[in-house]
Amino acid sequence: MTTTTLAVLVPLLPFLGAVAGLLLGRTAPGFVRPLAVLPTLTAFVLAVLVAVRQGGDAAVDAATELTPTGSVPVYLALHIDGFAALVAVLVGLVASCVQIYSTGYLRDDPRYPSYAALVSLFTSAMLLVVYSGDLIVLLVGWEVMGICSYFLVGHYWETPEARAASLKAFLVTKLGDVPFLIGLFALGTDAGSFRITRVLGTVAHGGLDHPTVIALLLLAGVAGKSAQFPLHTWLPDAMAGPTPVSALIHAATMVAAGVYFIARLLPVFEASAAAMVVMAVMAAVTMTGSGLAALAQDDIKRVLAYSTIGQLGYMTGALAVGDRGAAVFHLLSHGAFKALLFLAAGVVIHAAGTNSLAAMSRMSGLRDRVPDAYWTMTVALLALAAIPPFSGFFSKESVLGAAEHVTAGHTGHVPAATGWIVLVAGLVTAFLTAAYATRLWLLAFRGHGAQAPDHGRQPLTMTVVLWVLAVPSLALGGLAYRTLPDWFDGGDLAPTLTTSVLGTGVALIGGLVTYAAWRHLTGLAARVPLGAVAAHPEGDAGQVEAEAIATHAPAYGDVASAPDPADPGRLLLGPLHRHAAVGFHLDAVYTALFVRPVLAGASLVRFLDREVVETYVRGAGVLPRWLGAAVRRAQTGNVQTYVSALLAGTVVLAVAAVLVATGA
Amino acid sequence: MHLAYPAVLSALLFCTGVYGVLARRNAILVLMSVELMLNAVNLNLVAFDVWLSRTAEETLHSGQALTLFTIAIAAAEIGIGLAIVLAVYRNRGTSDIDKLRDTAEGHGSGTDGDAPAAEKAEATA
């Protein structure tokens, strides 16, 4: 088979698996698991084959016209360069792990068939985005991911949190997608084609008429999809979905789609210096804000969600300084270790019976209950905190290195200011990242108090994939930073001495400060009992998690934070903690700006409909009503009256007919 | 015999029938009046058939044939009618059609339930 055929099969197989799963889910339950796992696994193998054949050489391009549109034609096109090949491998790997993990995690879930089919559909859409060489076809995958995300976040739709979260995720990403669509049209019109190769060719010759407008419009869609400030608020709430969904969608793939999109079209963004500065500021605000917010979260998954936002900020920062190699390098390593973190967090939640870090910190022996999750999570958290030699170190250093390179002013098309913004924010975030990673690890695994509840052995499917993902988390960065430039643009990804020392230094300080704060507070934790634990020894992990999410707000007063005085994050943040716990009141701002006006408008429309329009409708009914009442009076029920009326009518008609006939 | 005699007779019979249908209270007498009307028409049919076939060269006497049909159908009709009257009498203890006013507006159970009560009272008054 040619590389093109293989590449076509990669998105197609999970799609067919999804269709078959949706059709056969009820009638043939035995086929659901193979139909979920095998196509995804095959797609992963094929993606690896495509990557091996492509080998970082010239991009593979193939296209056939999908439909004549009358103006700019739409092509069914593939454009597989090194970026696409490697990102597809990551998507295939994470999706396969998630599908295998889900067979154990949602073992007893009655809605597993539709869940697995949607995950397959989602995987297929992401692979389509990755391989597509046409922006409109890319948009199709982009939107299919959005709707799959909506369904999967709302998987536990019995709980109001999940319903609200899925709606929020959908609406907020759509808020970005509308400008994104307009941006795509503007780009296609300016370039005369939706083909990525032609667009890039046009940009290279300076053929774009409105680069700033287009770049900012596209950036809005990317901010929505990749959860960048100010459209990031949906991501922490999306943690109301099942953990494998969080791992797949909200860590490794969908949120990476935005970053990947910019990486593909980076020259378009580079054509506008203003857009690059906006991107840098957006990345800096996102990074630091999410780092602070992550320190204040109590739900273990929300910590990881804010961490995802921050790491995506790093990628956007790398793009803002014009180094897409570093951005995609970080995307790859982050995809691996963040998927691992989420999947391990799912195991921990199942074992602990709660998603609250405050409750976990009052449990001892959790690490002995789930040794696989403990060790793999330790690896992933070290990678997240960018401690050498874990993979996160190399990718994060490549980002910081790229930023430092720009501050020196060597690059013409990127302002030095963006380099400074990204570098400073990146270092601050490295400190915060290490701090919240340490806090998460200490609270989850170093708790004191009663024994953790026994939920039995974790299913093998859930623990094996953790080790599979631990390998790239541990070794990807160190092994790949020399070979990856061949796949990418050729820019150097090796860590530089200055940024390595600085980055690792602040990370170590962050970890140590958190450790000191935690030691300072351990005595206090024992004196303040806190926590509610869902005990379902026989239930599967999904059920335990759904219950934990549903009981968090009643038990601790809020879905995000807990009133735990022994929290090291509370000590570190000081008065900032109150604001960080609610995401710096951004949701309240949105409520004031959008939700209240919309609700007021809705009640106005309701008033107009009920009181004004309906009055006219009622008025129109009055006359027929009166006529009807008058006619009803004739209905006496006496047959003889009717016959008399009939006779009288006949006589009148007969007389009239005679008069007409005689011409009188 | 001139056509005027049977025509006048049938007109008188028909008028008697109409009067009976409109004025009689007993359902059986109303049915009898209906029969009078029918027979008035039969008389007309026969008389006009004879009158018209006198000048024709050949005729089917279709008027007289139709009369036979009418008589047969009237017999069936009166059978059903009397059976209904009998059933009504057994059910209600009366065959006075002034008292059989179930179809009057306001008697039925489902006649516009949501209309205001005042309107209904006005309608039945």
Task: Explain what this protein looks like in three dimensions.
The complex is a heterodimer of chains A (about 675) and B (about 120). Chain A is about 75% helix and about 5% strand. Chain A has about 675 residues and is mostly helical. Among the domains of chain A are: about 275-570, no CATH class; about 585-635; about 635-664. In chain A, the strands form 2 sheets. Chain A has a two-stranded antiparallel sheet. In chain A, a hairpin with a 6-residue loop joins strand 1 and strand 2. In chain A, helix 3 packs antiparallel against helix 10, helix 3 (about 80-105) runs parallel beside helix 15 and helix 11 packs parallel to helix 14 (about 300-320). Chain A is globular, with a radius of gyration of 30 Å. Chain A starts with a helix and ends with a helix. With about 120 residues, chain B is an all-alpha fold. Chain B has one domain: Helix Hairpins. Chain B has 4 helices and no strands. Chain B has helices spanning about 5-25, 25-55, 60-90, 115-125. The longest helix of chain B is centred in the middle third of the chain and has 31 residues, at about 60-90. The radius of gyration of chain B is 21 Å and the shape is elongated. Mean pLDDT of chain B is about 85; it is low at about 110-125. The interface of A and B includes residues 635 and 638 of A.
